[in-house]
Amino acid sequence: MSRRAPRVVVVGGGVAGLVIARDLARAGLNVEVLEGSRHLGGVVGPLTVQRDPTAQAAGRGRFRTVTVDAGAESFATRSVAVADLLEELHLTSRVVPPSPVGAWVAHDAGAAPLPRSGVLGIPTDLEEIERVAGRAAVRRARLDRYLPRRIGTGRAGTSVSLGHLVRARLGQEVLDRLVAPVAGGVHSTDPMLLDVDAVAPGLRRAVAEHGSLMAAAAALRAAAPAGAAVAGIRGGMHNLVTALADEVVGHGGVIRPGARVDAIERVAGTRRSPWRLTLADGATLGAAHVVVATDLPAAGALLTPLLPGVTIPQPSGGAGVSLVTLVLEHPDLNDAPRGTGVLVAPGAGPALGIRAKALTHASAKWDWVRDALPRDHHVVRLSFGRLGEADAPTASNDALISTAIHDVGVLLGVPVAPEQVVGSAVVRFPAGLPYAGVGHADRVRAVRAAAHEQPGLHVAGAWIAGTGLAAVVADARAVATALAEQLKNGTGHLAD
């Protein structure tokens, strides 16, 4: 394809935007990425934690800096989308599984290891339920195998929440103590709000086929690739962003950080550049194709004027997410007392006296993090903020760090003194994280159909593809493939 092929402008330099730009640049297209912030990758990026000056002055801590992930730290292995991309980027040799010790769940009655064989916390046997939720929950969950297959799955053509399905078949205790913590950790919201078909594709169909929810979860788990359900990259997932950006530029594409797009409009009578983008500095840019691959708030602002009559999914309106990373000098954590981390059941915080919704013991989860630290040093990351909680985004960094120090001791069952913290950092995602609410699939279809009616307009990103790198990458590559095919077949306004 000629380098005179029309300009494609990708709005948003997150993973979705970079994947699309990379694939199109490799296909010989003239691609430009406009990223509003100064940083690429969206929720995937590096975080360098430095030794605290106070700790250094007191002779505590034996490290200078450690670089970990600021946001997403792994990808789901349920599909080959990310694995295939990493192979093309020559990163396969750096893919690593997490530690097999597993994670825990904390609820108002205590803490216990999470089942490892289920789907989004849905257990596959009664022993797993008893260990976490008790015998009463087991008695209720036994009904699952005897209930009519239609119970909880809804009518054909309707949307059902993950929480509704679990509660109807396994009971409230299983929902509260097993599924809600996992759903909250992965999707930052209540499972009663999550569209089961979006977050666990095929689960409803498997219930009808196998006759129970636990059997359905077991079948989906068995059909997934062998090994851990997630994997990471040695050195951090942010290496994916670096590799994508390098390939975009290496194949002739342009990336412009700090170039925020305020408006997109269609210009009548211009075949080669029918789209005009207005940047925050007042500059304008013409394009034959525009890919909106921003986060949800920005996508809504840009697309709403272009797609009249279509409801763009709105942000949750709940709290943003704040991540507090601590470096601890604490030998009592060497044996990973709560495995790779702890998820907190919704509503358990007041009973436990904590505010965090999840904790990742990163140096126990990833060998590469442990190897980057001196002996007796650990990296833990605590997540604050879920739907309905509004204090985490407004708390000061010092207040969040102080809360995190307290919460890590409770969640890991090992007291932590402030002087054992030898480094800290706070990362905020004020817009929160997108989630697939009930009816998400219908809303996505409506948006895609409306965009299709606007030649040269395309949409991508987690808000439309679904949560997680596997979903985002698969969708982005599909968008890139379809656009490249349009141009190849002469339907995409090739150069005059």
From TrEMBL:
One of its GO terms (molecular function) is oxidoreductase activity. Residues 15-482 form the Amine oxidase domain. InterPro entries: Amino_oxidase (IPR002937), FAD/NAD-bd_sf (IPR036188), Zeta_carotene_desat/Oxidored (IPR050464). This is Oxygen-dependent protoporphyrinogen oxidase. It comes from Flavimobilis marinus.
